Amino acid sequence: MYFRKSFFQFLSITILLIFTWLFLFFNQAILAKNSNNNLLHVPNNASFAIRIDGRELVEKTIFSIFLESKDEVVISLLQELISKKSTNKGQFKNYGIDYLSDIVIFEIPYKRNSIQGILVNINNEHLFSKNLKNSKNVYACSKDVGVIFNYLSFKNQISISELKKIANNIVKTSTDNSIKHFITNHSSGKFIETFSQKSNFDQSAYFEKSNILFELHENSLMLSGKLSANSSSSKIKPLNKIVKPKGFHFSSTIIPTILVDSLNGWLNQFSIKTPLISSISFNLIETKIINHSSGFFVIPQIELFLEFEENFSIQEFLSSSELMAYLDYSLQDASISFQDEKLYFKQLTSNSIYIGINENPIFKAVDANETVKIQGDLKALTSIKGGGMMTAFLEMIPIYGASKNLAKHTESLDLILVKTDAITIDLKGELKFKKDHYPMNELIKFLLVGQLLD
Description:
By secondary structure, the chain is an alpha+beta fold. The chain has helices at 2-31, 54-68, 72-89, 125-132, 160-172, 179-182, 257-267, 314-318, 321-327, 379-382, 389-395, 398-408, 439-449; strands at 48-53, 102-110, 113-121, 137-142, 145-150, 190-197, 207-216, 220-229, 241-243, 248-252, 277-292, 295-308, 330-331, 335-338, 341-349, 352-356, 363-365, 370-376, 384-386, 410-419, 424-433.
């Protein structure tokens, strides 16, 4: 009897010691400071670099899903994904990559195009080379740093040997460039940093440089950063007048020329065009889909204010017989009608107009040096009324369902760009989630339900 009691005491102590050792080992793996030597190999000519803090991401995700929220939906989705991957492709391979360190996604210009790669930290060079050898990737590693290119993305631009040469040069060349000074701000909550700069052949880029930081807080995802306008964009004007925000609101004086060019390219078939847009402001309340003898018509429930760089007549624009026939609307003195749906329009000044669901919209002056303002309820982006079969079809699309679910669990979005001097713009943003809905959980659900990780 004494022997049996002693044996079970010994067994209990042994099991406790094993679990204690496993716990300490796990914590040592999680808490140990891993080296991030891959940051020293970001090419000098990289047009952008994205640093993903693997340690911070894992710690925040594990804490959020398994300890803080115990979100059974996310856990079930992750189990389903792991089971599916294991069934389709066998066991997960160990690529010798240190996933608890920084991972850097970058792009470099090449022959009037660009190529993208991933820089990783390596803890087993043999496994890294062995398991990538028969893949469709071009890779190179040197000591504890590896780079990976997906050759299928570049096969029409570059040969394997040439891409291999670039990869070897990257891992064997340590750079002390300015890029790593923008993407090495390690601290709690900061899990993604981005840096971009205009490449030599990308003359259409609106900004010379940008640096953006993503942070996780308990119930919100935060954005902050700085953007530097190039010489041709240095005269960016602050917002002056906007429609009073409601629903989902967007206002901006930063209007890429390519958008107007694309719009005019489409309008060319009706022999009409618009001048360059200097300011835009709109509220989106929801989207209506109406059935029509010729099909479905999508009518955004919107309040839209546009200011142009030159004079523009909304009456003449809407009077185009070709446009009227194509969009199948009837024109009245101050409104257009799509069957029973009506949109009002107004000529506010010689170069500014309004069109929307309210006959008398409310405008608001902007005091600060804001150049972009986004705020409101994301549900307006996925709220669709009517349409019958078309709406039912949309509900079947995974990405729409995932977007709708994400929007339902968010409380508000606030993002502003404020001009601080002739060329510098500060960015601040917050995506706030409702009580008991955590950012990482909701983002993972969005990716999995939307089948973006399959």
